[in-house]
Amino acid sequence: MSIEVMLKEFAEASAHPYRLIKEYKAQGKKVIGVLPYYAPEELVYAAGMVPMGIWGSNSKTISMAKEYCATFYCTIAQLALEMLLDGTLDDLDGLITPTICDTLRPMSQNFRVAMEGKLPCIFLAHPQQRKPAFGLQFTMDQYQHIKAELEKISGEAITDDALRNAIKVYNRSRAARREFVKLAGEHPDVISAVNRSAVLRSAWFMLKDEHTAKVEALNEELKKLPVCNWKGKKVLTSGIICDNPKLLQIFDDNQIAIVADDVAHESRPIRVDAAETGDPMMALAQQFADQDYDVLLYDEFSNQNRRADFVVKQIKDSGAQGLVLFMQQFCDPEEMEYPYLKKALDEAGIPHIKLGVDQQMRDFGQASTAIQAFADVL
Amino acid sequence: MSIYTLGIDIGSTASKCVMLCDGREIVAKSLIAVGAGTSGPQRAIAQVLEESGKSREDMAFSLATGYGRNSMRELADQQMSELSCHARGASFLFPDVHTVVDIGGQDVKVLQIENGVMTNFVMNDKCAAGTGRFLDVMARVLEVKVEDLGTLGAQSTKNISISSTCTVFAESEVISQLSMDTDKRDIINGIHHSVASRVAGLAHRVGVRDKVVMTGGVAQNTGVVKALEEELGHIIYTSPLTQYNGALGAALFAYQKYQKEHRD
User: Fold this and answer.
1) Cβ of A376 under 8 Å from any chain B Cβ?
2) Which of A97, A170, B250, B251 would you label with A200, given CA atoms 20 to 30 Å apart?
């Protein structure tokens, strides 16, 4: 299969997640909605169900959700609720609601109240202190709760063997996506910013083994390509999400390659794998504990500005010439982190731009101007 | 043989053209007070051609910039971000410029320039506060012409504080001040300081170094320029060509592109 055909398949899956839900349902599978961030999807997979990532929408407008939400909630959360209320996600069999930021915490209760009697909502509270033994135990307890709730929905027990298998499937998926990110950065002439996003975004909607097989096949084809002599510019992207094809098209139009990312929707959740041996529940808790350098995660050494240093290193290692930060409107963690990131970038002499984004944006004229000017600066 | 190049700046509220001869001499310029999505671009081009006595075919290279630049694909040979064009235009008018503050109809941009080249920049978020639109809204509420704001604000005798965070809230504040019979001239002065405060906050993010040049339509408002000088603590230079600065930069880049094409 040609690279072009493969990319079309990813684009199709990325553009039509609701169609995929219907297809999985037609196969007799149950589908569990999974909100951001760091939900243990492996448990859903091990239960024989389909985890379906819900990261807002680039085409919906907030209307019904306004009844439940403060205006300063991010659009990712509000649009997720909108889709639950307007019937878009009626085929879901359950919903996992992580509560890792100040918006998702109260939103978890909005989801519960709005979906009462209609959709089981499974509450997930990650510990702030995720690394010490008591933090690991807390995570394990939370995951046990999710496991029990998922078992109620599926009607089947989740065995340790099934969970170990799920961990293997997910580790393989993360490895394939990490390799794809690297290869996409090496071949921007073939993998456009729009296509890169589609490959990574579709991972949230497809069963991981199916997605991984496609990514691995694509990676094999990319490895065969000759070295690309890229004449355009190279950047690293950062932020919560940047999956709007219209916005990403501006990068392609201006010959700007995304050679690596620090994006919550793309590479942040695939940096760390889980142990494939031992107690699988502990392996998942440890995997969450091992996550790092994320604005959403507590950092006991935050006074050392480790996260910003990590991003600077990522930029240098990837050969990026600058950073494009997609600042999600009303995202407190990202907003509060920005001055520290800026300081580290300025000290390292790395240019950057901050683009305010919101999933209800339909006009990208200002972003286009900023991105085009940034390309001139690099 | 002389080489003529055309710079077309399609902003959100005005369309401007500058025609250059040999990348040095301004042959003609035009300004139509409507911008992207209107008849403004076509009329501005027609006017500049008429003024110069030249035709489209005489133009060796045309380059479009501004918010509406992408709608000019059939009329211009290339499109370029207005930030780069403003940097180029300001460097032409003020060779030792290091900071450009451009306040347009819906954008505020602060550019850092080194040896005539833009090295860094910052833009406002999607918010009208601190932009030309903010002044348009306030002028309408105050029932004065936007071009008279500078003169009226200079006659102020009392400091009035107007919010710098939001156009809608600031408009309410102005209405509230009017209902208390506050002198319009003092309110206008407060509005100028509100714009300056907002723009200064942005400018400090990228750094301010002399020589500071202000471009865009709002640079014609002496009240905003003075208030911004006070906020930044730097002298601000403006040019009579301030509104044409983006188009001038575009015409300069057009000349450069023409030369490159013919050298290659």
Assistant:
1) yes
2) A97
ipTM exceeds 0.95? no
Out of B70, B84, B126, name the one closest to residue A373 (CB). B84
Q: What are the angstrom distances between the C-alpha of A357 and each of A221, A289, A297?
A: 34, 29, 22
Instruction: Check B70 against A368: CB less than 8 A apart.
Output: yes
| Residue positions counted in chain B | 264
Give the nearest partner residue to B118 out of A353, A368, A376, using CB atoms.
A376
| Residue A230 pLDDT greater than 70, yes or no | yes
Residues of A numbered 310-369 whose beta carbons fall under 8 angstroms of chain B's beta carbons: which are they? 351, 353, 356, 361, 365-366, 368-369
- On whether both B228 and B252 belong to a single domain, the answer is no
pLDDT surpassing 90 at residue B245: yes
User: Range of B87's domain?
Assistant: 1-94+244-264
Answer whether residue B105 shows pLDDT above 80: no
Q: Does B115 touch chain A (CB under 8 A)?
A: no
Over range B89-112, report the average pLDDT: 91
Domains of chain A: total: 1
Contact in structure between B186 and B156 (CB atoms under 8 Å): yes
Residue of B nearest to A254 (CA): B80
Model-wide pTM > 0.80? yes
Which CATH number does the domain housing residue A61 bear? 3.40.50.11890
Burial A30-42 (b: 16+ CB within 10 A, else e): bbbbbbbbbbbbb
Q: Report the C-alpha gap between B247 and B133 in whole angstroms.
A: 20
Nearest to A126 by CA among A269, A230, A10: A269
